[in-house]
Structure formats: structure tokens, C-alpha cells
Design goal:
Helix content: 40-55%
Number of helices: 13
Distance between the termini: 28 Å
Order of helices and strands: EEEHHEHEHHHHHHHEHHH
Shape: globular
Strand content: 5-15%
Largest sheet: 4 strands, parallel
Number of strands: 6
Length: 247
């Protein structure tokens, strides 16, 4: 059986690649692996797609976790794991998280500036903003199918002649290759499954939780309809995942 070499022990698994979908408890999972004392797993410090692209050699670590595309995850190899989230709730979480980042003067980008200066209803109307499209428009489906980056989406779709249904089906097919598909709403189950599967003892702690935010049931039907227009593929993918991996 392939092994991960670790300090003071040997873990009988291949390397693990965590495809982190934004706002799905990915930072908590990264910190949990990084914080383990026994066994001590070599955690790759690279966290973002642009950084993975610049890395010629990605073979020196045991655990890889980041906002990586499925295309990049395949290059890394090993056991794939991911955590999904209800798409509407993920949209809301991102919006309020960006507002929080701006308010706390942690991040002043175009995205956080739009979030802080516009109501949720107005924010959900910016269908022509490339940055928001990459972060929000069927992000889970595209990240799992190939890449969420707009230019790569368009080139790849044209090359393979895929419509929306084809992209969705490919994301479903790719999910079947994952060792663990979990759900943010049941994050403790994800930790328990990983601990049992790999014989480890990760801690279950919350990270980057936005406390002050609205929930879907607090929002007007008109605004919810706008939000869902960003997520038609993600909603179908999430429902499929719940049925297939939710037990």
C-alpha cells in the first residue's frame, strides 16, 4: 500500500488533496491537519490556484489544501477530498464575509468594496463583474468540473463543445473520484470520517465564521430569486451530492 512519510511514523495512505471551495470550512480543515502533533503531516503552504500554477514540483508534501481547480488537483494526485455547502447559504456567507473584511480593514479589494457599499439585492445584480462571476457564478460546479476562472471556463467550454448540462455532468463525474465528499452543514461528520479513514485525530474547530449575517429565510423572495440565478448549476450539483454522498 502507498504511504505518506511522516515524522516519527508512517500513515498508510496516499497524499491527500483537499479541493477547498470558498466558505465551506476549508480553513478549519487546513488548520486541523496543520495542527496535528501525532502523526505530524507535512502540509503544503501553498493555498491559492495562482501559487499552485507556479509550483513546478508539488511532491514534497503529504497534505495539499487550497482554492485549487480540479485541473490542478489532478496534477497533484492522491486522495481527493472536498466539502460542499448549500449554494444560497454559501453566496450569503461570501457577501457578509467580504463586508466583514472591509469593515475590519483586513481586505480592501473591488469585491469587498462592492459588498460594503451595496445592499444584498443590488450586489446580486452585478452579473457583468468578472471577479464576482469567478467567485459566485456556479463556482462550485466549475471548480469541480475544471476551473472557475472565466477565461479558462470559456476556452475550455469552446474546446469541448459543452453546454451547461455537460459541465454539470462532468462535475458529478469528478465528484465520484473523491475519497471524501462532505458538507459544511455537517462539518463534524467530515472530521469524524477523516479521522476514521486515515487513523488520525484532528481537532474540530471553527475558523473564519461570520457571526453577523442574514439567513435565507430573512431575505425577500425577490432577492432570493436574484441570488438563485447565479447558482442554477450549483443547486443541482448540491442536490445530487446530498443524494449520492449524504448518508
Amino acid at each position: 500500500m502507498p504511504t505518506i512519510s511522516i515524522i516519527g511514523s508512517v500513515l498508510p495512505v496516499m497524499r491527500i488533496g483537499h479541493l477547498h471551495l470558498p466558505k465551506t470550512a476549508g480553513s478549519a480543515l487546513f488548520d486541523a491537519f496543520k495542527g496535528m502533533k501525532t502523526p505530524k503531516v507535512r502540509v503544503c503552504p501553498v493555498r491559492f490556484e495562482r501559487q499552485f500554477k507556479k509550483q513546478d514540483d508539488l511532491k514534497d508534501y503529504d497534505f495539499y489544501s487550497g482554492h485549487m481547480s480540479f485541473h490542478t488537483a489532478e496534477r497533484i494526485g492522491g486522495d481527493f477530498i472536498t466539502v460542499l455547502r448549500d449554494p444560497v447559504d454559501r453566496f450569503l456567507s461570501i457577501y457578509y464575509f467580504w463586508r466583514s473584511l472591509y469593515q475590519r480593514e483586513i481586505e480592501r479589494t473591488r469585491a469587498t468594496t462592492l459588498a460594503i457599499n451595496y445592499s444584498l439585492d443590488d450586489f446580486a445584480s452585478f452579473f457583468d463583474d468578472k471577479g464576482l462571476i469567478e467567485a459566485l457564478y456556479n463556482r462550485m460546479t466549475w471548480q469541480l468540473a475544471y476551473s472557475w476562472e472565466v477565461d479558462m471556463r470559456n476556452d475550455w467550454r469552446q474546446q469541448h463543445k459543452l453546454n451547461d448540462l455537460g459541465v454539470l455532468e462532468l462535475a458529478k463525474e469528478n465528484l465520484s473520484k473523491f475519497k471524501v465528499v462532505g458538507f459544511q452543514e455537517r462539518y463534524s461528520d467530515v472530521v469524524e470520517k477523516l479521522n476514521g479513514l486515515y487513523g488520525i485525530n484532528m481537532a474540530n474547530k471553527e475558523v473564519n465564521v461570520t457571526k453577523s449575517r442574514e439567513r435565507a429565510h430573512d431575505i425577500s423572495p425577490e432577492t432570493l430569486a436574484k441570488i438563485r440565478s447565479w447558482l442554477h448549476l450549483d443547486v443541482q450539483l448540491y442536490e445530487y451530492a446530498l443524494t449520492t454522498f449524504g448518508q
